[in-house]
């Protein structure tokens, strides 16, 4: 298994699948996933707004990280509805862009749009949720490999 394949499995198995979050004493919530030699941790603070970091280790060596900050911009729908739709969008993550969801996903009046540049080694992006074509949620993220090709 390579890193993009593992990231897809980890993201679908954690936030996108409503996995049980562990509450940490510093106020963070944490989701973890392990498969073979890979281990994934997503730790975040807050609900709206929220900030977090995803980390991947391979054979107990840090190899990848992503930081993110997001918030709901409008109260036209409830937080619960926004985050429920986000979970469905996150299940659409693909190996060629294993950062968030697919580039576009739509159900009824909700639309998820994710735009990024770069690849798994060095990337930056923004995900948005629209409701009836009005932007109601935005998240910015960036990250990449935590090792050089010579290591």
Can you characterise this structure?
By secondary structure, this protein is an alpha+beta fold. The chain is built from two helices and nine strands, in the order αβββββαββββ. The chain has a nine-stranded antiparallel beta sheet, with helices on one face. The protein is globular and about 45 Å long. The protein starts with a helix and ends in a 6-residue tail after the last strand. The mean pLDDT is 94.
Short key terms for the protein model shown above:
151 residues; alpha+beta; 2 helices; 9-stranded antiparallel beta sheet
Outline of this structure?
With 151 residues, the chain is α+β, with helices and mostly antiparallel strands. The model has no long low-confidence stretch (mean pLDDT 94).
Distance between the termini: 19 Å
- The rough form would be described as globular
Helices, by number, come to 2
How many E-type strands?
A: 9
Q: How much strand?
A: over 45%
């Amino acid at each position: 298994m390579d890193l993009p394949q593992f990231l897809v499995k980890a993201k679908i198995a954690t936030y996108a699948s409503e996995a049980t979050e562990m509450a940490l004493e510093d106020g963070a919530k944490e989701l973890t996933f392990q498969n073979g030699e890979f281990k994934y941790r997503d730790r975040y603070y807050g609900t709206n707004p929220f900030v977090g970091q995803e980390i991947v280790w391979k054979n107990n060596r840090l190899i990848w990280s992503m930081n993110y900050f997001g918030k709901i911009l409008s109260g036209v729908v409830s937080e619960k509805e926004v985050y429920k739709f986000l979970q469905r969008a996150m299940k659409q993550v693909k190996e060629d862009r294993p950062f968030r969801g697919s580039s576009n996903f739509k159900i009824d009046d909700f639309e998820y749009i994710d735009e990024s540049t770069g690849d798994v080694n060095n990337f930056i992006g923004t995900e948005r949720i629209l409701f009836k074509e009005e932007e109601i949620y935005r998240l910015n993220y960036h990250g990449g490999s935590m090792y050089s090709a010579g290591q």
